[in-house]
Amino acid sequence: MASLSLQHIDKIYDNNVQAVYDFNMEINDGEFIVLVGPSGCGKSTTLRMVAGLEDISNGKLFIDGKDCTQLPAKDRDIAMVFQNYALYGHMTIYENMAFSLMLAKEDKYVIHEKVMAAAEILGLTQQLNKKPNQLSGGQRQRVAMGRAIVRNPKVFLFDEPLSNLDAKLRGSTRREIKLLHKRLGTTMIYVTHDQTEALTLADRIVCMSMGHVQQIGTPLELYDHPKNLFVASFIGLPPMNLYNLKKEDGKFYVEGIETKIPARVADAVNKSDKNEFVLGIRPEDIHPGNDFVLDVNLNENTGHFTLTHGKLFGKTSCAKFRDWQRFKVGDKVGVSFDEERVHLFDAETTEAII
Ligand code: ADP
Asked: What CATH number is attached to the domain comprising 302?
């Protein structure tokens, strides 16, 4: 187990593409960290720099207080699990899991003990004599994890490990990874573009965009208090509804329509020296009420709640209602917002105000 310190880390590739800007983070021993963001935002590059698979252009990386910035990958005591499993097709599952220990010339009884223990943890005991192509995608991903576990590394790195699995397997393998973390207590850094994986797995999430860290915090911190518009719209599914809000001559205009706004928002707007804002409301924070009108044009039923789409302030919006509150297409539904949960952003800086 290990703590990590990433200090002012940049990555500039040889073609002068800067993939990561000034990444700073202290990772505690045993933490589960998820790097999340859209494709190309620099997540894998960051992970690969921690692994030692990419040079660090500027900045420093410490593992357990030791400067590892220049340390070769093989000496970092880190294990990485990839999206494509990277298993050896001609070897059995047992041999795949034992391989790194054999290379390290570990005693064969010790190897056997470690492989059997990892197989037990991962439910692979019955599969050890098979070849990778005889296993399902989920089982192969577990072998890839088994290979990492037998090494008893200080840190586990996962690069989009669930991307190749179908939706159901993704869910169950995700839970296995979480249980594995609980069981082993090892520091884990996990890369994904999937905000659900980030919210469900992480102790802390690092949300990135275009090479820059946007926010670091617990899943609920990012969900309830996104620091800026990027985090607000990236975390949460369906995404937060966003509306332009303008203050002019003491009146409020949402999407160009003069309207009243929630008192808490009006207070914040009145205190600000700015005139242009973005109002944010998550679908589940819209309730039947008397303040605004949602013009329903589509319902998506999920079984225990309905996603009701329609125009609110003239803009296509989504509200999440319980099924017993279902409204029909064409209904003009009176709605109110959960005041405490309405978000307000500075339109210019995109930073959160409330
Ligand atoms: P993510 O993992 O978030 O999808 P990456 O870290 O893979 O993003 O990539 C971040 C940026 O760096 C992208 O613009 C990508 O094109 C660029 N990039 C990644 N690898 C290389 C490379 N080997 N050489 C040059 N540019 C690269």
From this structure: 2.40.50.140
